[in-house]
Design a protein that fits this description.
By secondary structure, the chain is mainly beta. It has a single domain, classed as AttH-like fold (Beta Barrel), CATH 2.40.370. About 10% of the residues lie in helices and about 50% in strands. It is built from three helices and 13 strands. Strands 1, 2, 3, 4, 5, 6, 7, 8, 9, 10, 11, 12 and 13 form a 13-stranded mixed sheet that branches. A hairpin with a 2-residue loop joins strand 11 and strand 12. It is globular.
């Protein structure tokens, strides 16, 4: 079955339950999260994107994921929130991309996710305030993450040139606010690990 060509460029802000910075960025799933399992939510701002002839630019998303141990072993649980401004065609396209069925950068999700919770549409806000990112999925996610300042107090701490599947360069952050209530889960990760990165994904 042929797949449509797609691209997605933008930014991702992620908050997880690790008590210190998430080891998955460098361990590539060979070491467990600090709590033995991973619970995480993320917000995505698509700046430019398309799936075939469907324009995805300007759409915001939210994700939740649970990983029961080592990332590379799979059996992930995942759910997706899509901006209520998205057309039915965009929702269709983004569901294929974030379930891994579209191939390319997110193809491993089709292998590692054993329990896909589905897609919900809601108003989604992704804003930049000074250096912080504010992510709100109405009724579900309320989060603020802020980069950790480097030695000189100016530039953020960045892990660069990694083999992390999301992006090679990851800005180390902390969650100032991190509430997620959806799909039978109730999480609060304020003060814990967070990440910020540029996205440049494509397929198939």
């Amino acid at each position: 079955m042929s797949r449509e060509a797609w691209t997605l460029k933008g930014e991702l802000a992620l908050s997880c339950n690790c008590t210190v910075f998430c080891p998955c960025v460098l361990s590539l799933g060979q070491h467990p999260p600090t709590e033995g399992n991973c619970q995480t939510w993320a917000g995505i701002r698509i700046e430019e994107g398309h799936y075939g002839d469907t324009d995805l630019s300007g759409i915001n998303l939210g994700l939740i994921m649970e990983i029961p141990g080592l990332m590379a072993r799979g059996n992930w649980t995942a759910g997706v929130f899509i901006d209520d401004r998205a057309s039915v065609y965009a929702v269709n396209a983004l569901t294929k991309i974030f379930s891994g069925r579209a191939g390319g950068s997110t193809s491993l999700l089709s292998i590692l996710v054993g329990n896909f919770l589905g897609v919900r549409q809601a108003p989604i806000q992704y804003e930049i305030e000074d250096k912080s990112r504010i992510v709100k999925v109405e009724g579900y996610i309320d989060g603020v993450i802020t980069p950790i300042a480097g030695r000189d107090g100016g530039d953020e701490v960045v892990i660069s040139n990694s083999q992390y599947w999301i992006a090679p360069d990851i800005t180390v952050c902390q969650s100032d606010k991190s509430r997620m209530r959806a799909f039978g889960r109730n999480w609060n990760f304020a003060g814990r690990s967070a990440e910020l990165c540029r996205l440049d994904w494509a397929g198939p």
